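User: Could you check the structure of this?
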Amino acid sequence: MLRVAVPNKGSLSEAASAMLSEAGYRQRRDSRELVMVDPDNDIEFFFLRPRDIAVYVGRGTLDVGITGRDLLLDAEVEAEELLPLGFAASTFRFAGPVGDFASAEELEGKRLATSYDGLLRGYLAERGINAKVVRLDGAVESSVRLGVADAIADVVETGNTLKAAGMEIFGDPILKSEAVLIRRAGGTTNGTAKEVDVLIRRLQGVLVARQYVLMDYDIRKELVEKAAALTPGLESPTVSPLRDSDWVAVRSMVPKKETNRIMDELYDLGARAILVSSIHACRI
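Assistant: Sure, the predicted structure tokens are below.
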């Protein structure tokens, strides 16, 4: 069986399980379940702390896993990213007292508090910045006021917590993170490469289904090329004859976020009977 690590709690957990369900895999119904077997797909799911998943995968104990890119890099293990999954986006950044710092280079010789010491040490080493990293398990915003650090490196969403602590973001982002599918560096160790490929294709199908819709419309033959420029599809739109030989029916995949704009432009061009359908699953 393919052995897959899934986050058991936190912001990654619910979205990861939802995506796997959309990909056709059975998921747990009770949050207390730690292991679940899906015999129809010959796969076994292990629900683990997100921070531990990269460790289990990197050591080859489990074949693949879903975790955050930031947690993967912070673990400093022999695991690699296979596929970005498009949810749980976050940005890892520097912050310090208002007016104290303008760039990462000014951190030379300073103390930096973080919950991601592995990730931060790697970033500093790549840029030749010599700073002391102070690992904290949480609430790093308080470390400067308490005299533990001169600045911090942490995941930033709105920045409101930093402002309340009298701090501001500075420098370029350290890392832009999101949920990712990972495996042991160099591939799996138990002959499950084919099963991993199937998992990747299914997850890619979910990503495409979430990002695109199917658009159908009727248009006069002489306007097909102009219409196709608006709805090029992934390779090419499908064009079918209608009973009225002056008209054709067109079907194409279009980006979901552009649906209404494209419909308006098609209508202005002369298209009629414009319909939009959701995509529940696909293989590209």
